[in-house]
């Protein structure tokens, strides 16, 4: 029993040390990415902004106004809204904006209901790309907000560096509760990891709310072919295909002018449904780095919970000491990483909620690893697998 206990303690401590090393590596790489400052050069790149939308009556008008207010040349800007069978008046609102801006290149695609496909957002983007005219595709979500230099910053970086795909920062905003603030702190951590992984020449994740890629590159990798059986993953699966075909040609745009804002989930059930949706794409991963990183993160959070439970029931102080070691190691490595990321987003006040966020993440990640395995979730009024 003593030998087994020693082996268990060694495994748990080794996982903790590996996690800390990974987070410190992410920290150094995040800090190594220079902040891009726009110089205001005259752009030449035609951009198509694609906005998939379903039941977005509360958000779509503001999103479109933000995009129509960009300081990017109108003759180089095309906007395509793709309605995915909305059951509210999203279509009416979009059509009203289109009729009120006859001099702008803005159009509405209406998807026909096809019950046999799970594509949804992937299908919306695929059909929009097929009719787009821009050299550079920029995707965002209907519930997003952005500053008026968003497109000009993306275009200037693209024209200077010519990446095949460009990842850009996303954050939550206008939090009204502690729960929403905890989500924001966690979410900007994901964005920081995305940037750090790109700096390591090994992209791991991205967010379709602020993503740009060449139309030719989308077609070259076959779009979402071979991933069209999963409703989620329109962003990361495309990124992984581009990573495989064009290694080193994915960049991260670290610029405050390029930040896109969206909203955290207000209700606990909506939060879990969102996270289950994110987890639902797990069966489609075939990238060793993504799988290995996800397993390490999950295993470490699971071990922290295991250490806590064992400390409650086991004799002696061995597991209590282990739990304290793992928890403090996680807090230290995560805080060192989150501080510069929060500073970039101008949200250092969120760090006051760091300890509650750590507790939330440890337990919900462990829980989602169990309940998320059935692959069923509810999103936008649909029951999905």
Query: On the 0-100 scale, what is the average pLDDT?
Result: 88
Q: How many E strands?
A: 12
Radius of gyration from the alpha-carbon trace, in angstroms: 22 Å
Total separate domains: 2
Structural class: alpha/beta
The CATH homologous superfamily of the largest domain: Spore Coat Polysaccharide Biosynthesis Protein SpsA, Chain A
Please state how the strands of the largest beta sheet are arranged side by side. Answer: 3-2-1-4-8-6-9
Number of helical segments? 12
Overall geometric form: globular
Key attributes of the depicted protein:
2 domains; single chain; alpha/beta; Spore Coat Polysaccharide Biosynthesis Protein SpsA, Chain A; three-stranded mixed sheet; globular; 12 helices; 385 residues
Produce a short descriptive summary:
The protein is of the alpha/beta class and 385 residues long. The protein has helices spanning 2-32, 60-68, 90-100, 121-131, 150-161, 178-199, 215-220, 236-245, 268-279, 288-313, 318-344, 354-371; strands at 47-53, 77-83, 105-110, 136-139, 145-146, 165-167, 170-172, 211-214, 250-252, 260-262, 377-379, 382-384. Strands 3-2-1-4-8-6-9 form a 7-stranded mixed sheet, with helices on both faces. A 3-stranded mixed sheet has the order 5-10-7. The chain has a two-stranded antiparallel sheet with strand order 11-12.
């Amino acid at each position: 029993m003593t030998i087994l206990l020693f082996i268990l303690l060694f495994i748990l401590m080794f996982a903790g040390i590996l996690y800390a090393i990974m987070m410190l590596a992410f920290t150094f790489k995040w800090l190594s990415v220079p902040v891009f400052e726009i110089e205001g050069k005259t752009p030449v790149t035609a951009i198509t902004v694609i906005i998939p939308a379903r039941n977005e009556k509360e958000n779509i008008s503001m999103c479109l106004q933000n995009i129509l207010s960009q300081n990017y040349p109108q003759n180089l800007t095309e906007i395509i809204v793709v309605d995915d069978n909305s059951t509210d008046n999203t279509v009416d609102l979009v059509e009203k904006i289109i009729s009120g801006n006859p001099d702008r290149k803005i159009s509405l695609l209406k998807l026909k209901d096809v019950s046999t496909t799970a594509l949804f957002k992937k299908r919306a983007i695929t059909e929009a790309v097929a009719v787009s005219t821009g050299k550079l595709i920029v995707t965002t979500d209907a519930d997003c907000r952005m500053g008026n230099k968003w497109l000009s910053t993306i275009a200037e970086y693209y024209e200077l560096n010519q990446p095949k795909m460009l990842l850009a920062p996303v954050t939550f905003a206008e939090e009204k509760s502690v729960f929403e603030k905890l989500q924001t702190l966690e979410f900007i951590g994901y964005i920081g990891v995305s940037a750090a992984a790109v700096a390591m020449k090994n992209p791991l994740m991205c967010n379709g709310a602020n993503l740009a890629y060449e139309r030719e590159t989308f077609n070259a990798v076959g779009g979402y072919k071979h991933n069209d059986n999963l409703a989620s993953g329109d962003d990361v699966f495309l990124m992984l295909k581009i990573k495989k075909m064009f290694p080193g040609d994915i960049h991260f745009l670290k610029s405050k002018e390029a930040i896109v804002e969206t909203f955290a989930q207000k209700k606990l059930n909506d939060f879990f449904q969102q996270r289950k949706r994110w987890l639902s794409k797990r069966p489609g991963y075939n990238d060793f780095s993504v799988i290995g990183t996800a397993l390490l993160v999950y295993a470490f959070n699971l071990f922290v919970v295991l250490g806590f439970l064992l400390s409650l029931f086991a004799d002696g102080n061995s597991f209590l000491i282990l739990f304290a070691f793992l928890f403090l190691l996680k807090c230290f490595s995560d805080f060192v990483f989150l501080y510069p990321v929060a500073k970039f987003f101008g949200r250092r006040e969120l760090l006051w909620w760091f300890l509650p966020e750590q507790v939330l993440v440890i337990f919900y990640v462990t829980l989602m690893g169990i309940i998320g395995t059935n692959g069923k979730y509810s999103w936008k009024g649909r029951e999905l697998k």
